[in-house]
């Protein structure tokens, strides 16, 4: 058994709740008049539209903005927002199938706030125990306690009637928590008192549970009597509480009241020595103290201790609000349900003076967990009061040991987590079989974590146990954990009670389902969650108890005899399509009997030819010639019965092709032969015990396990399994006369269990072998089909199966899907892709001329570091040193690539690009390594016995984490090399780095190296800048060739990124790119880049020269000069004319640019050049000249 989520209740009218709480945010507010309410219930029109609106509305995360509290008895749910609240009470209804189910329906709606501007900040539902002797643990009624931002705490009935209100502190109420009585499980455990704790930003109020219980009962009784008598003057009993001022913490957002604790003598002496020094005095008896733990900031967690008896409880009269008449009370309850209640009746409004607020008793922090950057968000106390879970703004969940005041465990990647606890008692059946049955009943503790960001609910064993369960749920759910049960219970009244409470509930606002987590106790017995022994023991005990409860003895079952051949035919029909596909793909010739050993007294073919099978299923020997009869006698004299059996199965395996032509007939014959041989004397020993392994059936299994003929082995296993079952059943029936009691039990054998496992394994092998027989596509690297058997898979380790599949992943057929379904764990998508990637890189390493980008794009982070160290780094370093020493680029491309790197120049370019991508993936994965947990490797149950070398995935998970700066350093080098090879630029890549940078190259990525830091040498930065400028120029020139990889649009952004890493001013690169784009005639692209340039003055000067070159070409160097252009040239100012004649248009790669583009460029110049610029007037002359020239055209 494992963890499960059980739905025990469902919320009704979710849309009604949402619309009422959020009606002010709707475009057309809902009118809660009687007619509208009744029409909403009775009208059946627009039903489909209503369902669509409800579904759409419920998908929004509205519940996260509400204050939600659930009674531990799950019979009352309160949803509040701002001043409004909705109470939902439990009701039972009959579904369509006639089954009774529990639902929560709206029972009251209304406004809770009475003061202007106050809102609901916290609420809890406290069920109060009944004082009647006949009670069995069900609550008498439930009190709803609500805290407001004004500081008021008000108490309501489940019908929304206000019982009492108290202003204990003039700050907003942050959190309400309750502690109820729990029966001590062990002697010596301090009995905890009931209390209600109220947290304010700088104060903590604790109300004694007994006093609160009595006050609430008295108020409820007086409300009923006042409503009956029409009186409005009620004197409630006083309320006893303590008020502590929490000091030495900057901010407090949540708390938990651990209860009364008593230190041991050693801890008392230790604390006295720390606080009082060497001469501190120690009291004779350790004092009893109440422990309070708070979370927030400065420190992150604070521990407070209040010595019992240090302060007297405060007695305060509460302000009560009671309806003056019965009709008023009834009208208030009814109108709250119908939505009419305005909660403030003008005629009954009474101005109340604020009661006196008592000062708080200062309480200093004893110690805390300081962490200046971490801020706690919530704390959840365990039922045993020894542990607590804390969430913070870093997305961590911390487990605290409250007795020692330390953090003992931390989970990462749980931002906005919600916590709860589950305490699971040991089953009574387990106690009966336990050697410690006389000891107190054991309890297991589990922590429930709901991560809304990931939509997952996890269950963890305490304190250092593994994750025992995980469920995928919605991302907008609420985890409801009360942490208390019934109030008003003590050690006397709780005897014999059966408390029906839910510890942890998950509310889904989309479906309205309320689910609880069911955890078996046995999951806490072992830290290893895969412990099959604990599961089997638990399941066996539960099964035994179930059978005994129904009056059936364990193991007793009515045997139903089934015909073995019918069972075999059913199995054949199940695997028939796979067998047909296997028979079509196999082309292996059958084995000839001429290969029999010459020393054999009788060939196998001759041996089988002298036997026949009758219609009655008997096996007879055919009398042949005298010579053959003598040979048969010698063979049976020499060969044992076991050897005869093995010979038959040897022939069967080798004649697989003939067997598959008529499988039904051949299987029937083999079954008859095997039954006959098994029933012969000496086949199965009479003394053989069914709970041990029979040597007779073991040799048959070994033959099937070792065979590479998957189809023949599977058919033989079908036959042998049925034959073994028939034989074992026959042996059991033959002993009826010896023991009548034994005949009533079902014949169970260890051999049958092993046969079941063997058949399942052979079915897996058959599907796998069929996939491997699929021929490769035209042009793919082929070869002989891989042979596999159960033995090879078990001896090859868990990775052998993946190696076989990944070597032929091109076989994307339905067979691959079938294999993955039979191996859901071993062939999970992550593992399959990882092994395929590795196989592809191995093939690339053998034939480096194949482009590696086809393979690396499917890789996973878990093996990328292994790929780098095994295959990539050697060739990358060879390419770097080759480029460093090559004096001419053509020598690099033509001569040295094959010699030093082992691949041609085109393959080197592709290889360098893939190196960049590989290193980028390494950096991305390293950044998210804390948020993603390591995968868990598992294997199918029938293949758990696999042994052999570690798989690729296991080796990958053992790899150490990479050093991010070192990976980035190598990525920078590979990017420079890739750019140089792509654009055919001469580059000495290692010369662009200083001595520290050169020494860090080609080291193990998991080590920490001395990296370059600080400002780089200006000469080195100049060389880097020159290379990046050349890359940008080459990219602009290659834009016109879209088929080339050099024209990719990501090259400019890459150069800017490289510039920031190489300490090159990115603005220089942008200005150069703008000029090059204008030079190429790509004005629109240049305008896009121009928006990102910061130094517009320098850019304006550069573009001014380029504009002059364009205009000079149009006026002076164009072959088609017009008369208008010549006249315009004569009218130009002498200065501008001289300047244009000095321009050299030959520097333009695209001089023939339309005049409107040049006019637009001049307009941009005038915009970016300031008026006080030295060349501003020249720009104005250019603008006039271009406009005049445009007008002439």
TrEMBL record:
Keywords on record: Cytoplasm, GTPase activation
The keyword Cell wall biogenesis/degradation belongs to this UniProt entry's keyword annotation: no
**InterPro entries xrefs:** Rab3GAP2 (IPR026059), RAB3GAP2_C (IPR029257), RAB3GAP_N (IPR032839)
Give the span(s) annotated as Disordered: 33-57
Please state every residue range assigned to the domain named Rab3-GAP regulatory subunit N-terminal.
62-480
Q: Name one GO molecular function term.
A: GTPase activator activity
Q: Give start-end ranges for the coiled-coil region(s).
A: none
Which residue numbers delimit the Rab3GAP regulatory subunit C-terminal domain? 649-806, 812-1170
In which compartments does the protein localize? Cytoplasm
Q: Answer whether the UniProt record assigns the keyword Cytoplasm to this protein.
A: yes
Superkingdom to which the source organism belongs: Eukaryota
- Can you cite an annotated GO cellular component? cytoplasm
Residues of the signal peptide: none
What family is this protein classified in? Answer: Belongs to the Rab3-GAP regulatory subunit family.
What protein am I looking at? RAB3 GTPase activating protein subunit 2 (non-catalytic)
**What species is this protein from?**
Sander lucioperca (Pike-perch)
Q: Which gene encodes it?
A: rab3gap2
């Amino acid at each position: 058994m494992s963890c499960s989520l059980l739905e025990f209740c469902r919320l009704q009218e979710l849309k009604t709740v949402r619309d009422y709480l959020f009606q002010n945010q709707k475009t057309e507010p809902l009118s809660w008049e009687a007619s509208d309410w009744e029409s909403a219930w009775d009208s059946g029109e627009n039903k489909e539209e209503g369902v669509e609106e409800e579904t759409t509305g419920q998908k929004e995360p509205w519940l996260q903005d509400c204050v939600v509290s659930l009674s531990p008895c799950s019979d009352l749910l309160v949803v509040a927002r701002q001043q409004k609240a909705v109470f939902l009470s439990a009701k039972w209804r009959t579904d369509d199938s006639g089954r009774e189910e529990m639902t929560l329906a709206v029972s009251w709606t209304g406004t809770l706030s009475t003061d202007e501007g106050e809102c609901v900040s916290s609420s809890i539902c406290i069920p109060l125990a009944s004082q009647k002797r006949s009670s069995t643990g069900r609550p008498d009624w439930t009190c709803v306690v609500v805290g407001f931002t004004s500081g008021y705490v008000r108490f309501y009935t489940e019908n929304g009637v206000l019982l009492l209100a108290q202003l204990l502190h003039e700050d907003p109420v942050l959190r309400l928590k309750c502690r109820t009585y729990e029966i001590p499980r062990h002697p010596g455990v301090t009995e905890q008192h009931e209390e209600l704790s109220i947290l304010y930003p700088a104060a903590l109020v604790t109300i004694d549970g007994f006093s609160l219980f009595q006050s609430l009962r008295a108020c409820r009784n007086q409300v009923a009597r006042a409503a009956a008598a029409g009186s409005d003057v009620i004197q409630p009993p006083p309320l006893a509480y303590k008020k502590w001022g929490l000091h030495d913490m900057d901010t407090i957002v949540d708390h938990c009241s651990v209860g009364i604790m008593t230190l041991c003598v050693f801890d008392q002496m230790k604390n006295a020595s720390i606080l009082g020094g060497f001469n501190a005095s120690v009291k004779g008896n350790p004092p009893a103290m109440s422990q309070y733990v708070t979370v927030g900031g400065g420190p992150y967690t604070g521990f407070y201790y209040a010595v019992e008896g240090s302060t007297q409880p405060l007695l305060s009269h509460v302000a009560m609000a009671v309806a003056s008449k019965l009709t008023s009370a009834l009208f208030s309850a009814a109108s709250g349900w119908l939505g009419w209640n305005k909660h403030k009746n003008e005629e009954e409004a009474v101005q109340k003076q604020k009661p006196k607020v008592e000062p708080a008793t200062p309480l200093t922090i004893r110690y805390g967990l300081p962490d200046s950057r971490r801020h706690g968000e919530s704390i959840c106390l365990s039922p045993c009061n020894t542990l607590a879970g804390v969430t913070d703004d870093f997305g961590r969940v911390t487990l605290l040991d409250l007795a020692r005041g330390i953090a003992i465990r931390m989970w990462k990647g749980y931002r906005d987590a919600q916590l709860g606890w589950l305490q699971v008692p040991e089953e009574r059946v387990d106690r009966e079989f336990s050697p410690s049955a006389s000891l107190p009943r054991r309890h297991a503790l589990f922590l429930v974590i709901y991560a809304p960001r990931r939509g997952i609910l996890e269950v963890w064993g305490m304190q250092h146990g593994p994750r025992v369960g995980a469920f995928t749920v919605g991302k907008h759910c609420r985890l409801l954990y009360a942490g208390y049960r019934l109030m008003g219970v003590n050690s006397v009244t709780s005897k014999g009670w059966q408390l029906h409470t839910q510890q942890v509930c998950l509310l889904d606002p989309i479906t309205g389902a309320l689910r609880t987590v069911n955890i078996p106790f046995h999951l806490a017995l072992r830290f290893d969650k895969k412990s099959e022994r604990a599961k089997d023991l638990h399941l066996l005990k539960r099964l035994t108890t179930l059978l005994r409860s129904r009056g059936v003895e364990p193991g007793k079952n009515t045997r139903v005899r089934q015909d073995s051949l019918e069972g075999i035919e059913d199995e054949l029909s199940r695997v028939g399509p796979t067998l047909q596909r296997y028979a079509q793909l196999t082309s292996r010739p059958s084995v000839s009997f001429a290969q029999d050993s010459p020393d054999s007294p009788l060939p196998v073919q001759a041996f089988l030819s002298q036997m026949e099978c009758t219609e009655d299923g008997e096996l007879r020997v055919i009398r042949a010639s005298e010579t053959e009869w003598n040979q048969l006698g010698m063979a049976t004299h020499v060969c044992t019965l076991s050897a005869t059996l093995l010979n038959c199965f040897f022939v069967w395996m080798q004649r697989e092709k003939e067997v598959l032509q008529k499988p039904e007939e051949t299987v029937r014959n083999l079954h008859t032969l095997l039954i006959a041989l098994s029933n012969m004397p000496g086949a199965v020993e009479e003394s053989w015990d069914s709970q041990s392994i029979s040597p007779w059936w073991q040799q048959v299994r070994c033959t099937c396990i070792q065979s590479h003929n998957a189809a023949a082995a599977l058919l033989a296993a079908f036959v042998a399994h049925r034959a073994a079952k028939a034989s074992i059943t026959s042996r059991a029936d033959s002993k009826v006369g010896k023991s009548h009691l034994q005949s009533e039990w079902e014949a169970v054998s260890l051999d049958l269990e092993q046969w079941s496992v063997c058949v399942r394994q052979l079915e897996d092998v058959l599907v796998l072998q069929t996939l491997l027989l699929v021929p490769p596509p035209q042009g793919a690297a082929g070869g002989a089909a891989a042979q596999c058997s159960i033995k090879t898979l078990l001896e090859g380790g868990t990775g052998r199966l993946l190696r076989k599949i990944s070597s032929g992943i091109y076989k994307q057929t339905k067979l691959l899907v079938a294999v993955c379904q039979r191996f859901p764990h071993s062939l999970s998508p992550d593992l399959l892709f990882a092994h395929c990637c590795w196989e592809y890189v191995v093939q690339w390493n053998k034939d480096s001329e194949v482009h590696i980008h086809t393979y690396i794009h499917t890789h996973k982070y878990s093996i990328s570091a292994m790929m780098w160290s095994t295959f990539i780094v050697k060739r990358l370093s060879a390419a770097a040193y080759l480029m460093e020493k090559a004096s001419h680029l053509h020598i690099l491309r033509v001569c040295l690539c094959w010699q030093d790197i082992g691949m041609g120049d085109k393959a080197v370019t592709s290889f360098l690009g893939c190196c960049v991508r590989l290193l980028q993936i390494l950096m991305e994965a390293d950044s998210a390594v804390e948020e993603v947990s390591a995968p868990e490797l598992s294997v199918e149950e029938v293949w758990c016995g696999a042994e052999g070398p570690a798989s690729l995935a296991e080796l990958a998970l053992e790899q150490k984490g990479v050093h991010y700066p070192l990976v980035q350093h190598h990525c920078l080098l590979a990017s420079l090399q890739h750019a140089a090879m792509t654009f055919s630029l001469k580059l000495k890549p290692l010369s662009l780095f200083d001595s520290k940078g050169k020494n860090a190259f080609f080291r193990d990525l998991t080590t920490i190296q001395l990296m370059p830091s600080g400002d780089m040498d200006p000469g080195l930065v100049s060389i880097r800048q020159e290379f990046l400028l050349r890359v940008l120029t080459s990219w602009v020139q290659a834009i016109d060739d879209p088929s080339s990889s050099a024209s990719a649009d990501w090259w400019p952004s890459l150069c800017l990124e490289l510039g920031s890493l190489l300490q090159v001013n990115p603005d220089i690169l942008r200005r150069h790119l703008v000029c090059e784009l204008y030079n190429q005639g790509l004005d629109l692209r240049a305008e896009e880049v121009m928006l990102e340039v910061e130094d517009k003055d320098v850019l304006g000067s550069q573009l001014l020269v380029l504009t002059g070159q364009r205009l000079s070409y149009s006026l002076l160097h164009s072959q088609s000069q017009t008369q208008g252009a010549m006249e315009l040239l004569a009218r130009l100012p002498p200065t501008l004319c001289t300047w244009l004649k000095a321009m050299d248009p030959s520097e333009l790669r695209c001089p023939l640019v339309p005049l409107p583009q040049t006019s637009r460029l001049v307009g941009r110049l005038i915009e970016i050049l300031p008026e006080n610029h030295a060349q501003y007037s020249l720009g104005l002359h250019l603008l006039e000249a271009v406009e005049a020239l445009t007008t002439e055209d």
